[in-house]
């Protein structure tokens, strides 16, 4: 999963079920549960800073409801894009009209762009989770050539493996409870050229301290048992070793708390959410990032640091340095 999103402090629009018929440009995050989504706060802040009128809401959507919601998006005016979180990433990839190169390689989608008029609508799937991971850990000081580890075998684990490739990881250990359920992660590893070693979940207590970067892709509290075992074993970690925990509510997670106490650096999933949301904004309003009016742009250059700072302010993250 992408980090299970947390509550929008601004009270941005949110709803349950299918999108309504509101006029104007629209976007939304789909997932279940979605009541604690930070995506509306991030996107609303971005569009306000960019002076673009887009309404962004959270729509609680189960996999059984996904076809209905996508049908409404195809049939209603105004839609520009969708953010997609658990448990819809694989199902969305199977239902869109097109996949960009990365989404096709990963087999999972966290972003959908909507193009064309009603009746000729084209939904294209993208994956910005890789950007979110790479930029979040790079901001925390991670450099290429590392030894990595990934916890979990779902859609975000696939993105994590692709991120490890982008970070030129020498080797990557994958810790899963059931290797049969991580077949897509194995496929992605081969596709992006990462040498994956499948490890038994119970070995994580002893082996995680050997990693320079650990990416936990489990649901909230999914690593609490592992954290308890590491506490009991008095497990230390390398000084400066980084843990990115995609589940950021509650924060710090039990695993992040132990990691920090044991000497490591922790990165909340909210950082990942920030950076993947920035890439979604680029996809949803490309005209604001185009070079000039001749290419369909506004002719004004976006201050990307100011954009990031506005989004950070909306969710309580430190401004960028």
TrEMBL record:
May I have one GO cellular component term?
A: cytosol
Record-level GO BP terms: aromatic amino acid family biosynthetic process; chorismate biosynthetic process; shikimate metabolic process
Give a yes or no for keyword Translocase in this entry. no
An annotated Gene Ontology molecular function: shikimate 3-dehydrogenase (NADP+) activity
User: Pathway it acts in?
Assistant: Metabolic intermediate biosynthesis; chorismate biosynthesis; chorismate from D-erythrose 4-phosphate and phosphoenolpyruvate: step 4/7
Q: Where is this region: Disordered?
A: 1-26
Short name of one Pfam family for this protein? Shikimate_dh_N
Superkingdom of this protein's organism = Bacteria
User: Where does the record place Low complexity bias?
Assistant: 9-22
Q: Start and end of every Shikimate dehydrogenase substrate binding N-terminal domain?
A: 29-112
For this protein, the record's Gene3D superfamilies field holds: Leucine Dehydrogenase, chain A, domain 1 (3.40.50.10860), NAD(P)-binding Rossmann-like Domain (3.40.50.720)
UniProt keyword list = Amino-acid biosynthesis, Aromatic amino acid biosynthesis
Q: Can you name this protein?
A: Shikimate dehydrogenase substrate binding N-terminal domain-containing protein
Species of origin reads Tersicoccus phoenicis
């Amino acid at each position: 999963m992408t980090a299970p999103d947390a509550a929008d402090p601004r009270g941005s629009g949110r709803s349950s079920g299918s999108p309504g018929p509101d006029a104007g440009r629209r976007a939304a995050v789909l997932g279940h549960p979605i009541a604690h989504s930070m995506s509306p706060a991030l996107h609303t802040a971005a569009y306000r800073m960019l002076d673009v009128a887009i309404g962004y809401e959270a729509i609680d959507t189960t996999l059984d409801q996904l076809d209905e919601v996508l049908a409404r998006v195809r049939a209603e005016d105004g839609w520009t894009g969708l953010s997609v979180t658990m448990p819809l990433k694989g199902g969305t990839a199977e239902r869109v009209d097109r996949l960009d190169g990365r989404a096709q390689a990963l087999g999972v989608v966290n972003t959908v762009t909507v193009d064309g008029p009603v009746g000729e609508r084209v939904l294209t799937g993208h994956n910005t989770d890789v950007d979110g991971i790479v930029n979040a850990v790079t901001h925390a000081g991670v450099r290429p050539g590392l030894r990595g580890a990934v916890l979990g075998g779902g859609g975000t684990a696939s993105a994590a493996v692709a991120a490890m490739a982008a970070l030129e990881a020498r080797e990557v250990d994958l810790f899963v409870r059931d290797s049969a359920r991580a077949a897509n992660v194995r496929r992605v590893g081969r596709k992006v050229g990462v040498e994956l070693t499948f490890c038994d979940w119970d070995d994580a207590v002893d082996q995680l301290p050997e990693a320079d970067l650990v990416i936990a892709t489990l649901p909230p509290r999914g690593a609490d048992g592992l954290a308890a075992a590491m506490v009991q074993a008095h497990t230390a970690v390398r000084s400066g070793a980084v843990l990115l925990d995609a589940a950021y509510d509650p924060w710090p997670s039990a695993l992040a708390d132990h990691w920090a106490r044991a000497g490591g650096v922790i990165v909340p999933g909210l950082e990942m959410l920030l950076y993947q949301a920035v890439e979604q904004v680029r996809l949803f309003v490309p005209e604001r990032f185009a070079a000039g009016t001749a290419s369909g742009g506004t002719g004004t250059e976006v201050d990307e640091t100011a954009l990031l700072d506005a989004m950070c302010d909306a969710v309580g993250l430190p401004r960028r340095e």
